[in-house]
C-alpha cells in the first residue's frame, strides 16, 4: 500500500520538466512548471490521491494517480 503520494508527485513533476524553486513554510515546496503561469505548492506529505491529482492539474499535467 502506498504510504503517501508526495514522492510520486515529485517524480511526475520532474519528468514533465518542472523545476524545484525553493522550500516553503513547514514541509511545503515551491515548484515551477513550464505549462503553468503560477508557482505550484507541493506539500511534503500528500495522503490523498485527490490532493495529488489537484497538484498535477495546477501544474498543467494531465496524469492522474
TrEMBL record:
<keyword id="KW-0540">Nuclease</keyword>
<keyword id="KW-0694">RNA-binding</keyword>
<keyword id="KW-0346">Stress response</keyword>
<keyword id="KW-0378">Hydrolase</keyword>
<dbReference type="GO" id="GO:0016787">
    <property type="term" value="F:hydrolase activity"/>
</dbReference>
<keyword id="KW-0255">Endonuclease</keyword>
<dbReference type="InterPro" id="IPR038570">
    <property type="entry name" value="HicA_sf"/>
</dbReference>
<dbReference type="Pfam" id="PF07927">
    <property type="entry name" value="HicA_toxin"/>
</dbReference>
<keyword id="KW-1277">Toxin-antitoxin system</keyword>
<protein>
    <submittedName>
        <fullName>HicA-like toxin of HicAB toxin-antitoxin system</fullName>
    </submittedName>
</protein>
<dbReference type="InterPro" id="IPR012933">
    <property type="entry name" value="HicA_mRNA_interferase"/>
</dbReference>
<dbReference type="GO" id="GO:0004519">
    <property type="term" value="F:endonuclease activity"/>
</dbReference>
<dbReference type="GO" id="GO:0003729">
    <property type="term" value="F:mRNA binding"/>
</dbReference>
<comment type="similarity">
    <text>Belongs to the HicA mRNA interferase family.</text>
</comment>
Amino acid at each position: 500500500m502506498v504510504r503517501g503520494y508526495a514522492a510520486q508527485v515529485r517524480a511526475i513533476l520532474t519528468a514533465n520538466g518542472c523545476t524545484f524553486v525553493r522550500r516553503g513554510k513547514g514541509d511545503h515546496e515551491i515548484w515551477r512548471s513550464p505549462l503553468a503561469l503560477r508557482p505550484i505548492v507541493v506539500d511534503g506529505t500528500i495522503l490523498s490521491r485527490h490532493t495529488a491529482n489537484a497538484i498535477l492539474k495546477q501544474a498543467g499535467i494531465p496524469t492522474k494517480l
